[in-house]
Amino acid sequence: MNIILLSGGSGKRLWPLSNDIRSKQFIKLFKDDNGNYESMIQRVYKQIITVNPAASVTIATSKSQVSVIKSQLGEKINICVEPFRRDTFPAILLAAAYLHYELCIDAEESVVVCPVDPYVDNDYYKCVGELEKLVKAGIAKLTLMGIKPTYPSDKYGYIIPDCAQKISSVQSFKEKPDVETAKKYLAGHALWNAGVFAFKLGYLLDKAHDIVDFTDYRDLYAKYDDLPKISFDYAVVEKEPSIQVIRYEGEWKDVGTWNMMSEVMADVAKGKVIMDDTCVNINIVNELNLPIICMGLKDMVVAASGDGILISDKEASGRMKPYVEKLDNEAMFAEKSWGTYSVIDVQNDAMTIKVILNNGQHMSYHSHENRNEVWIVVSGKGKAVVDDMEQILRPGDVLTIAKGCKHTVIAESKLELVEVQMGKISVDDKEKFTLNGYF
Questions:
Q1: Per CATH, which fold does 2-254 belong to?
Q2: For the whole model, what pTM was predicted?
Q3: Widest Cα–Cα separation across the chain
Q4: How far apart are CA 24 and CA 117, in angstroms?
């Protein structure tokens, strides 16, 4: 089975823990069987390979999320990277081309597209396996999964089937209705549209060739700007006459807001937190190295990170996106393929960062033209390479790197450093090089 996981998101609805680099699917608020914190994408990937061990998973995402995906799922995960963010239709088309032209997946094979962020049990992915069988049967060109509603929601689109059976043809699609209209849909056995689509790979490739003249994945990548910025629902699903839906009746929660996340996160409180006995229905996540004390609160969420602090009524937290959009903050925390960085202090032409490299990991070999850097080793051991010269690193060592010097740090154990950047600081001021004999 070929599964495309759509990993997008602008990081607004679970602020301040989420940002443009760390969207909600990367925040570690769940726990695995050993009691270790894990993220949504780790949970979902584990569920997929548990239910379908032979499944081939490809993640469609943006450039800014590649490092954190590799950090959380490993270097071997298949990733299809959009050159820039558009919408689900271009992203799915590009991923389909990647499967066929880069991974050599046959056009007759089945593909299932799923969002990366629903909170579900394993039965959901068993249902995904049934989608593959339906595609192979060839009764319809497009097969969807619809979620049996638990209440008349005005937050989701609806699939209108022609009957109440588990598998049925689709009559129509409805946009997010008001609650009274949603009640009428439910009386007609309507399903929530969960954004899960299944088809033969060749079906979508034919659609792509009808829209853009391209020869292979790399050619389509180069012409990505020519693809319309439109959702897969509008571009394909609602125009397809041959379409069926399978009804899923198991656990499914959209954890796109703090109110919903608080229902499924592993712990009521995470981090340095103290609550008195009068707090009721409170969830607190504290990523700061400072304590938070809450007293007498009811039905609230408190979240704190280097990006900011949220104190909100749970119901109101779902409406915070326009307020977060008013902020002009750079991401103060990011998880990279090699570890993490946390911004400690920002001044004019200076930035101080805490860097943690995981055991055996390394940064790219790179240089900066507009800034100098000073690295201070706090703990652990490793080595640095500066302009091809190797230096052993131990706690207390200070490394000065001038503008234009090629450099990298390699961790031989978990390595913690403080980095001070001085000069004109920009994320674009970075040139990468190959380091012979190392990586």
A1: Spore Coat Polysaccharide Biosynthesis Protein SpsA; Chain A (3.90.550)
A2: 0.88
A3: 72
A4: 8
